[in-house]
Specification:
- With about 130 residues, the protein is α+β, with helices and mostly antiparallel strands.
- The protein has one domain: YjbQ-like (Jelly Rolls, Sandwich).
- It has three helices and eight strands, in the order E-E-H-E-E-H-H-E-E-E-E.
- It has a five-stranded antiparallel beta sheet with strand order 1-8-3-5-6, with helices on one face. A three-stranded antiparallel beta sheet has the order 2-7-4.
- The longest helix has 14 residues.
Length: about 130
């Protein structure tokens, strides 16, 4: 079972909590036990699992990525000028695999699923696949 979602981002770099979006789709399917793969369909946007209680975690995460992968590094050769976005995506990963049990995503107390925009704002797509 596959579902595709569109996400509109509003900044060059941002993390959008998509946990509820994924859980609502799982609820619609009625699947009780299985796995779901959540995948970004882009080379400059990733998917990660991280803390969803303190918004400062997202701020710190994006700040540290900018420090590690600076925008417009003088030695970057990629003509589009977004090498940092490609590196950030490879670092965070383009997909996450999560367990479903009793119809619910199996996440830790503070965990959430995040779509990570690194070259926005844009209209983006994520694809989710459920397997029982």
């Amino acid at each position: 079972m596959i579902k595709q979602f569109e996400i509109n981002t509003s900044s060059r770099d941002e993390m959008i909590d998509i946990t509820r979006l994924v859980q609502e789709w799982i609820d619609e399917t009625g699947i009780q036990e299985g796995i779901v793969v959540v995948q970004s369909m882009h080379t400059t946007a990733g998917v990660t699992v991280n803390e969803n209680a303190d918004p400062d975690v997202k701020t710190d995460f994006l700040m540290r990525l900018d420090e590690t992968f600076p925008w417009n590094h003088i030695q970057d050769r990629h003509r589009e000028g977004n090498t940092a976005a490609h590196l950030k995506t490879s670092f965070t990963g383009h997909a996450q695999t999560l367990i479903i049990t009793k119809g619910r995503l199996l996440l830790g107390t503070w965990q959430g699923i995040y779509f990570c925009e690194f070259d926005g704002p844009r209209t983006r797509r994520i694809t989710c696949r459920l397997s029982e």
